[in-house]
């Protein structure tokens, strides 16, 4: 998962390949709660690993459920409808799929069995209305106090006395999660009587209620439904575990890759595994909307394959009430359509993780689109001219994932632009590896993938600076020195002489390296410390001047230029490997400073060292590197010079990031 402050997406031009979806959020949290309320042990397969499921699991543990993991299978031993913990404070983040049903279940159990619970979340959760659910529960005898603003979390649920002799009424026109919460909770108090829920107003997001009814059936509760206005919980309902439950892939998450295929899968399809035409999720109907816009979609049990059909896409007008989450993807697909796309009956967007109608309108305008925002609809007309934009995500996972599709703009404009996604970490709510999956199936022109190079002499701090820059930008890292050091280490161990150019080149071509954070593996073994030995470094400096070795490693180094970008560290990154890099930094420091740094580094790792000898060695290396016939050490003509003799690592990083930002095209657009 990308943990950077922002992530820059270069222009994307193709999509093809395989995506395996994470488990459905809607199914995952419903299954977790049902398992927690049931008698017996439920084995949950393919559960979504995300912020929402994490807070639900923490809540279940706090309430007394036994939760154990066996590989990829999660075992939950439920409460059997009886409270084990009578008092608790539960923090539920921004997970509406945890807050709403837990409120209903704990309010009813506290009123029936006695108990006191406080439920809270992040500030945005305290802005998401829950008053209609509270209004439905209070007449049943549940004591519920809103601890902040009336009608909003945080909440205190503090006992009461149940009164269940009349139908339970709940509004259905704000969020289907209120009805779902009651459907999940009322079987707990159905002893001796059937319970009736009557929905006031038109029920929105009906497919999500279908998911709830389907899962209730699997856990032993057959709810009787009269249209979408009246639901009856049978008398003496009891939750019983079905044993094993498999969570299907998230259909809402599939929408982004369906869209990517519709936009850019020309030579081969995008294949999505984890959801298919037999899905129980309403958002699978996103496929119908994608086809209406021009996509070619094939499907089977648990898979979809999407290719581009008509191009540009066709604008559509759609009542999107049945696919409220996935419909956000259509608003970004509208950027690639001829005409104006209008999505209606989406008022529920305004009470999600953010006000999604307002947020979508604001960010689409930054890209150059014309947007008509209404209380319950949005209309999008593509840009006449695309603009590079920094997209705010409002701590809303779907904003981040939707707007990533704007990076495919080279397919529709002659002047392609990159797209910046602020706070990409927010996708952890439902799809922690979303951007990695997107990059796996996307292609960009090599020259459009940004590169930042850090060149300089030995012990100038290139590696440290480059590693931190790559981490802060979310880019791949190329430490070219490690490649030469790995060749040198292999030569020492296999007794290949420093003058055996052909033998050394063969070793270089066959390197089996793997970079993992601060660890370097060679042939499956951690060689991080061995690669830093002085003997290895000295030989690496000698063999790096050999033409055959350099040729063997040249293509390998170029292959590191992958989405979303690259920070390349070495002595000729900006002059030979990546002469067209967007920013080239030539890092240096005095010989004395570099020797002292190397000395401290070696001593800290348990190696013996002598400061005068290190100074002499560095001076000799500098001379050798500057005077070698092939790629002598020198700054590129357009390199930014940075003498860090008197600077900390953080100061150097901040300075270079400032230069990098100045080179980026993002500006505040009219949406800001």
Task: Write a structural description.
By secondary structure, the protein is of the alpha/beta class. It has 3 domains: 6-22 and 248-446, Enolpyruvate transferase domain (UDP-n-acetylglucosamine1-carboxyvinyl-transferase, Chain), CATH 3.65.10.10; 25-244, Alpha-beta prism (UDP-n-acetylglucosamine1-carboxyvinyl-transferase, Chain); 450-663, P-loop containing nucleotide triphosphate hydrolases (Rossmann fold), CATH 3.40.50. Strands 29-33-28-34-35 form a 5-stranded parallel beta sheet. Strands 3-16-18-17 form a 4-stranded mixed beta sheet. The radius of gyration is 29 Å and the shape is elongated. The chain starts with 5 loop residues before the first strand and ends in a 9-residue tail after the last helix. The mean pLDDT is 93.
What is the topology?
Elements lengths: L5 E4 L4 E2 L1 E4 L4 H13 L3 E5 L5 H12 L3 E5 L2 E5 L9 E5 L4 H18 L2 E5 L10 H7 L4 E5 L8 E6 L7 E4 L4 H10 L9 E6 L5 H13 L5 E3 L3 E4 L10 E3 L4 H14 L5 E4 L12 H8 L2 E5 L2 E5 L5 E2 L2 E3 L7 H7 L3 E2 L2 E4 L11 H12 L2 E5 L2 E5 L7 E3 L5 H8 L14 E4 L11 H8 E2 L7 E5 L6 H12 L2 E4 H14 L7 H9 L3 E4 L2 E4 L2 E2 L7 H10 L3 H12 L7 E4 L3 H5 L5 E6 L2 H14 L6 H17 L12 E4 L5 H15 L9
Helix pairs in contact: 1-2, 1-3, 1-6, 3-5, 5-6, 9-11, 13-21, 14-15, 14-16, 15-17, 19-20
What general form does the structure show?
A: elongated
CATH topology of the largest domain: the name is UDP-n-acetylglucosamine1-carboxyvinyl-transferase, Chain
Q: Low-confidence spans: pLDDT under 50, at least 5 residues?
A: none
- Largest sheet properties: 5 strands, parallel
Name the CATH superfamily assignment of the largest domain: Enolpyruvate transferase domain
Total domain count: 3
Give the distance, in angstroms, between the N- and C-terminal Cα atoms: 27 Å
Bin the strand percentage.
Answer: 15-25%
Biggest β-sheet: strands ordered side by side in the sheet: 29-33-28-34-35
Counting helices, strands and paired strands, the structural category is alpha/beta
CATH class of the largest domain: Alpha Beta
Helix percentage range:
25-40%
The whole-angstrom Rg is 29 Å
CATH second-level architecture of the largest domain: Alpha-beta prism
Discrete helix count? 21
Number of strand segments = 35
């Amino acid at each position: 998962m990308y943990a950077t402050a922002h992530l820059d997406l270069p222009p994307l031009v193709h999509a093809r390949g395989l995506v395996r979806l994470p488990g459905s959020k809607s199914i995952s949290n419903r299954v977790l709660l049902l398992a927690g309320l049931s008698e017996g042990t439920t084995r949950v397969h393919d559960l979504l690993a995300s912020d929402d499921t994490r807070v639900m699991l923490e809540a279940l543990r706090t309430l007394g459920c036994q939760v154990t993991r066996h590989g990829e299978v999660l075992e939950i031993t439920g409460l059997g409808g009886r409270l084990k913990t009578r008092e608790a404070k539960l923090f539920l983040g921004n997970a509406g799929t945890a807050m709403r049903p837990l409120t209903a279940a704990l309010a009813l159990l506290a009123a029936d069995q006695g108990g006191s619970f406080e439920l809270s979340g992040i500030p945005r959760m305290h802005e998401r209305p829950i008053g209609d659910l509270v209004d439905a529960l209070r007449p049943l005898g549940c004591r519920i106090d809103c601890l902040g603003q009336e009608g909003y979390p945080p909440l205190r649920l503090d006992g009461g006395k149940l009164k269940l002799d009349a139908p339970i009424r709940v509004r259905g026109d704000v969020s289907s999660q209120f009805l779902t919460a009651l459907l999940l909770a009322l079987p707990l108090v159905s002893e001796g009587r059937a319970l009736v829920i009557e929905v006031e107003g038109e029920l929105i997001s009906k497919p999500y209620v279908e998911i709830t009814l389907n899962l209730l059936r699997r856990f032993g509760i057959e709810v009787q439904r009269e249209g979408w206005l009246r639901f009856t919980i049978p008398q003496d309902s009891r939750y019983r575990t079905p044993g094993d439950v498999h969570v299907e892939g998230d259909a809402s998450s599939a929408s982004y890759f369906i869209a990517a295929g519709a936009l850019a899968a020309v030579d081969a399809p995008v294949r999505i595994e984890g959801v298919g035409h037999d899905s129980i999720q309403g958002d699978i109907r996103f496929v119908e909307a994608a086809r209406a816009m021009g996509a070619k979609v094939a499907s089977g049990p648990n898979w979809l394959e999407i290719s581009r059909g008509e191009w540009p896409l066709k604008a559509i007008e759609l009542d999107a009430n049945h696919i409220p989450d996935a419909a956000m993807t259509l608003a970004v697909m509208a950027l690639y359509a001829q005409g104006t796309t209008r999505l209606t009956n989406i008022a529920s967007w305004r009470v999600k993780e953010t006000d999604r109608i307002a947020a979508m309108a604001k960010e689409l305008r930054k890209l150059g689109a014309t947007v008509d925002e209404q209380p319950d609809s949005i209309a999008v007309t593509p840009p006449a001219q695309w603009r590079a934009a920094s997209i705010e995500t409002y701590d809303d996972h779907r904003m981040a994932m939707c707007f990533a599709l704007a990076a495919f703009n080279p397919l529709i404009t002659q002047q392609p632009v990159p797209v910046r996604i602020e706070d990409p970490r927010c996708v952890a709510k439902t799809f922690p590896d979303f951007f990695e999956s997107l990059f796996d199936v996307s292609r960009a022109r090599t020259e459009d993938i940004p590169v930042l190079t850090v060149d300089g002499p030995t012990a100038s701090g290139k590696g440290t600076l480059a590693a931190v820059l790559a981490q802060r930008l979310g880019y791949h890292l190329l430490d070219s020195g490690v490649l030469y050091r790995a060749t040198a280490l292999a030569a020492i161990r296999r007794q290949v002489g420093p003058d055996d150019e052909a033998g050394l080149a063969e070793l270089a071509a066959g390197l089996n390296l793997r970079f993992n954070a601060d660890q370097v593996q060679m042939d499956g073994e951690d060689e991080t410390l061995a690669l830093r030995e002085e003997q290895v470094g000295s030989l690496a400096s000698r063999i790096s001047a050999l033409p055959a070795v350099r040729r063997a490693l040249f293509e390998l180094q170029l292959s590191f230029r992958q989405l979303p970008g690259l920070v390349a560290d070495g002595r000729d990154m900006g002059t030979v490997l990546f002469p067209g890099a967007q920013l080239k930094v030539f890092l240096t420091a005095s010989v004395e400073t570099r020797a002292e740094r190397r000395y401290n580094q070696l001593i800290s790792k348990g190696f013996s060292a002598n400061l005068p000898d290190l100074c002499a060695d560095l001076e000799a290396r500098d001379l050798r590197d500057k005077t070698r016939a092939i790629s002598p050490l020198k700054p590129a003509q357009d390199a930014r010079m940075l003498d860090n003799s008197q600077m900390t690592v953080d100061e150097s990083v901040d300075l270079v990031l400032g230069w990098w930002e100045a080179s980026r095209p993002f500006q505040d657009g009219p949406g800001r």
